[in-house]
Design brief:
154 residues, eight-stranded antiparallel barrel, 1 helix
Length: 154
């Protein structure tokens, strides 16, 4: 829980120290995501680096690298996936991703993962905040990931 509290203090400092001005027409959308993953009555701190390249105003593709350090009884989970995005209107992003979930610990293994996601971007002068919810499909489990991303386009 300390990491969540620390992130809530560090995140605003990072946001307001950025000197880029967000304008229409940018193609690169790097993102820092902070949130939680909920599965089987347990919720764990989640953080990620994400990147989207927008081909057009409506379509983009990207990569996600996500960590859940305390998941699977402390073994930790690393998720890597590629995603396709659709922006039906300027503020909404719908995504579908395919990738791998790597479980650490004494018996590490990797599983296939499919993710669907939705976010709503709040645009500010220098950045966007994107509350996001995602549902992962891994074997018969469906963890829910929720949180907020900070996007600084260029």
């Amino acid at each position: 829980m300390n990491r969540v509290v620390t992130s809530l203090f560090v995140l605003p400092i990072m946001l307001f120290s950025v000197n880029l001005v967000a304008k229409e027409g940018y193609h690169h959308f790097p993102e820092i995501f902070v949130g939680a993953t909920h599965l089987d009555g347990e919720t764990h701190f989640t953080y990620a680096l994400e990147y989207e390249y927008k081909f057009t105003e409506e379509f983009g593709a990207g990569l996600i690298y996500e960590k859940v350090d305390d998941a699977h009884h402390g073994d930790g989970v690393t998720i890597q996936l590629a995603a396709l995005y659709y922006h039906p209107i300027n503020f909404i992003r719908l995504g579908v991703g395919f990738g791998k979930e790597k479980i650490g610990g004494d018996h590490p293994h990797t599983e296939d993962l499919v993710r669907i996601s939705a976010s709503y971007d709040y645009h500010f002068e220098n950045f966007s905040l994107a509350p996001t919810i995602a549902i992962d499909f891994v074997n018969s489990e469906t963890p829910v990931v929720f949180g907020v991303g900070v996007i600084v386009p260029f």
